[in-house]
Amino acid sequence: xxxxxxxxxxxxxxxxxxxxxxxxxxxxxxxxxxxxxxxxxxxxxxxxxx
Length: 50
Prior knowledge:
There is one protein chain. 38% of the residues lie in helices and 0% in strands. It is elongated, with a radius of gyration of 23 Å. By secondary structure, it is mainly α. The N and C termini lie far apart (54 Å).
């Protein structure tokens, strides 16, 4: 008993998904200097429902 390699229907689709994931933009953090330069944080008195 071994793996069934006759029906390779997933490797091409998985490769396309992996390539698409590599092209997706990734979030980056702001540098600490930029956060400090933006001033003190001010919260709204009433939360905004989302």
